[in-house]
Write a structure and sequence with these properties.
The complex is a heterodimer of chains A (110) and B (114). With 110 residues, chain A is mainly β. Chain A has no helices and eleven strands. In chain A, strand 4 and strand 5 form a beta hairpin. The chains are: A mainly beta (110), B mainly beta (114).
């Protein structure tokens, strides 16, 4: 079945850019999402990209999709302490089920 | 954006009792809702898919008699943990799917079984 992998931790300094990476195995994945989870809370949808797109930008967020390498990334520009959280990528294909990555814990140092 | 609520946000119960968790889509209709379980520092595990007006579809390894799901309307799904035991203690998150397949998540319910 589909497997979605993320690195577990990322630490950056406030004001720097953060890049969170995600790899997946199912080449038929059509929708790819990024969610943010703060401690003790649910998941907040940050952005998503369709598989026919290479890039999507939304304010400080830039999503890059490399379909050939099955690699998805989320870049956060000018990272702030409020961006500290766990970030999950999720992919879905023909079915409605989401396959979640393992989550990347982002720590922003002041 | 689409808003999903859950109630209660936190519940403590005695072993052997049943607990009901509600999931509501506040500003949209959701024919499909999902129930996830999240263990500490882990990803979300899909438990079941709840379809309005029909029986839920459970993932492999999830006991349907243990986790009862009802999706009585287009805006409400409930998860009842029956005869709860300490190993059922977890963070339960629901989501509701919009017409374009995007899932919006509730804030989660933390269940502690003593």
């Amino acid at each position: 079945g589909e497997d979605v992998e993320q690195s577990l931790f990322l630490s950056v300094r406030e004001g720097d850019s953060s890049v969170i990476n995600c790899t997946y195995t199912d080449s038929s994945s059509t929708y790819l999402y990024w969610y943010k989870q703060e401690p003790g809370a649910g998941l907040q949808l940050l952005t998503y990209i369709f598989s026919n797109m290479d890039m999507k930008q939304d304010q400080r967020l830039t999503v890059l999709l490399n379909k050939k390498d099955k690699h998805l990334s989320l870049r956060i520009a000018d990272t702030q302490t409020g961006d500290s959280a766990i970030y999950f990528c999720a992919v879905t294909s023909g079915t409605y089920k989401y396959i979640f990555g393992t989550g990347t814990r982002l720590k922003v140092l002041a | 954006g689409a808003v999903v609520s859950q109630h209660p946000s936190r519940v403590i119960c005695k072993s052997g009792t049943s607990v009901k968790i509600e999931c509501r889509s506040l500003d949209f209709q959701a024919t499909t809702m999902f129930w996830y379980r999240q263990f500490p520092k882990q990803s979300l595990m899909l438990m079941a898919t709840s379809n309005e007006g029909s029986k839920a579809t459970y993932e492999q390894g999830v006991e349907k008699d243990k986790f009862l799901i009802n999706h009585a309307s287009l805006t409400l799904s409930t998860l009842t943990v029956t005869s709860a035991h300490p190993e059922d203690s977890s963070f339960y998150i629901c989501s509701a799917r919009t017409y374009n397949k995007t899932q919006y998540f509730g804030p989660g319910t933390r269940l502690l079984v003593l």
